[in-house]
Amino acid sequence: MAEEQFGPALPIIRYSTVDEAVAMANGLDVGLGASVWSSDLSAAREVAARIEAGTVWINKHGAVDPRIPFGGAKQSGYGLEFGVEGLKALGVPQIING
């Protein structure tokens, strides 16, 4: 992919090695979300840890849980939403002393 993908579409791209797939995934200046698909959960976690994205799903895509922070990496997104971290990112504390 040469652009960030939005919508109800999940691009599938052919690759020869895992290193090549990770390089392609990390080669863009965006990184909102990605997914890794594999029957080997341990290997999928290792690959997911190498991908520069705000969220990397394993064997699913786009599952957002309001209890878990969601945000992008690189030029994707505008910060965090959801979860305690998301609430903290949106809040502006005010201290009134006196």
TrEMBL record:
GO terms of molecular function: phenylacetaldehyde dehydrogenase (NAD+) activity
Transmembrane intervals: none
SUPFAM superfamilies (UniProt xref): ALDH-like
Keywords: Oxidoreductase
DNA-binding found in the keyword field: no
Domain Aldehyde dehydrogenase span(s) in chain numbering: 2-89
InterPro entries recorded: Ald_DH/histidinol_DH (IPR016161), Ald_DH_C (IPR016163), Ald_DH_N (IPR016162), Aldehyde_DH_dom (IPR015590)
Lineage: superkingdom: Bacteria
Residues in the signal sequence: none
Enzyme class: oxidoreductase
EC number: 1.2.1.39
Name listed for the protein in its UniProt record: Phenylacetaldehyde dehydrogenase
